[in-house]
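Ligand-bound model needed. thiamine diphosphate.
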Amino acid sequence: MPRQDLLQPEFGSDVVVNLMRTFGIEYAAMNPGATFRGIHDSLVNYGGNQRPELILCCHEEIAVSLAHGYAKAAGKPMAAVVHNIVGLQHASMAIFNAFCDRAPVLILGGTGPMDTTRRRPWIDWIHTALVQGNLVRDYVKWDDQPASTAAVPEAFARAYRIAMTEPMGPVYLCFDADLQEGRLDRPIPLPDPVRFAPSSPPQADARVLAEAARLLCEAEFPLILVESLVPHPWALAALQRLAELLAAPVIDLGDEHRGRSCFPTAHPLDLFGAKREMIREADVVLALDVQDFLGTLAEVDRTTREVKPVSDRPVKIIGVSLNDYAIRSWAQTYLSLVPLDLPITADAGMVLPSLVKLVEEQLQKDSRAATRQARFVKLRIRHEALREEWLHTVEAQRLQRPVAYSVLAAAVWEAIKDEDWILANGTARGWAKRVWEWQPERFCGGSGGAGLGYGLGASLGVALALRDSGKVCVNLQPDGDFLYVTSALYTAAHHQIPLLTVMCNNRSYYNDEEHQEVMAKARGRSVENKVVGIRIEGPAPDFAKIAQGFGVYAEGPIEDPKDLGFALKRALKVVKEDRLPALVDVVTWLA
Ligand SMILES: Cc1ncc(C[n+]2csc(CCOP(=O)(O)OP(=O)(O)O)c2C)c(N)n1
Ligand SMILES: [Mg+2]
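Prediction:
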């Protein structure tokens, strides 16, 4: 298809495509719909289906989760184009996840025509809202519906900038069908993206940072909690340096809810496996981009919902985050209000190098080097003991049928450890973090909003962003989450996206099985019934057959751990050499 000249758009929607290209949008995930037929035509026939290229999805939730994963891997947005109010409603779960995960996703939509005299009967009426942005306004950072083509460039540039400014988030731009389809009567100037770049994130007040450094250096047992860090190139190294200077254990929470993992598990100060013990000992906590303070510092009784602090020791908390800039009133995604002794609104990654410098200066005057050295040794011994214990568990569960999560994680590691790997989604119930040589920058984090239906779409977005990088992208995929968005396999096959999906198939919405057990026990009722409405059996879906039906290479179900290594090897070959998707269905032990 010949590429048209960017400078000669003919219709309103050609301008939208020019803007996407100007701002470097590489892909537009979509499911078709007549309200954006103008944009669709412009993408294909004006833009030549290149930069952006259309990625066909069978559900708008997949389109947005794919853009969510892409944003985390590429560090910039791609577009998800969704049809009026119906596509937007399907997309809404994934938009919420991206919002909670603070991921920049550019959601574009069509509407109308808003001019009622231009509407087709019935369908153009029932699918037009006043205004569509209302549907998602509470969980996007910004939405807009420009009223003329001339107003489109400013709206687009603003949307891009808002999405990419920390704390990042999804934005929604809605285009009237008439505006898209209208012929241009004058040239529309395009903005220079360099001059509309997101602003640099906020740094902390130097005096407050000096106080933080003092508290940390004077602490008896400083502890670092980290949930996420903006991936500045220096951030992870600065975090390690800070931990080493202070001989402070680090608990990396980046695999739990939102955010990005930040600490290598091979580091002797990585103590995520001893979270409780460390919190018990700590007198000063440095919380870097942590949102879930209470969930981290307290324990919850699953039966009574009682929340009890892990430690009864007075603890001073230094909280560095942009949490206060990310507050909306609708869903209470800001979590419980926890007292902070030193709240610092700043980008934690930006703050780290300054904090390292201040701590270095402070420690030169400090006479407790021997105490810190002794603490470091003690922590290293605990760290090593934990790792040994986990490897021992793998050995103890090696022959268990169906396959234990520890064994599944170890087998996947064995298959990919010499590759340039990326873990796009999932941790096999935390076992990847325990038994892999975990390099935090290689993990793309979770859904953010705990809305199921995230994993497969997001993993495809990650793999799409890294398609030409030679990296091997892996998705450790729970079965329940998968079943919401099975048709994403079509997108994987059609667009030849190289992704290794390993099904962690416990044939259950297991998380809820635990809840039903707790309920039944608390009420003295039948615990055996906990599986009703929860187990995904009778019949158990055959995920390999499902994948094959979509044209994806697949093996399984595998119940015997002895078969696992070979199956993974064959699937990896498909991903690595043929650059195609593959799926291995592993039936896993429930717990
Ligand atoms: C959209 C949505 N529906 C329901 C839930 C409630 N929920 C939380 S975890 C879970 C079970 C998940 O099952 P699976 O993905 O197979 O993971 P497993 O717990 O079995 O490891 C459910 C149903 C949710 N979080 N999101
Ligand atoms: Mg499950």
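The first strand starts at residue 27 and ends at 30.
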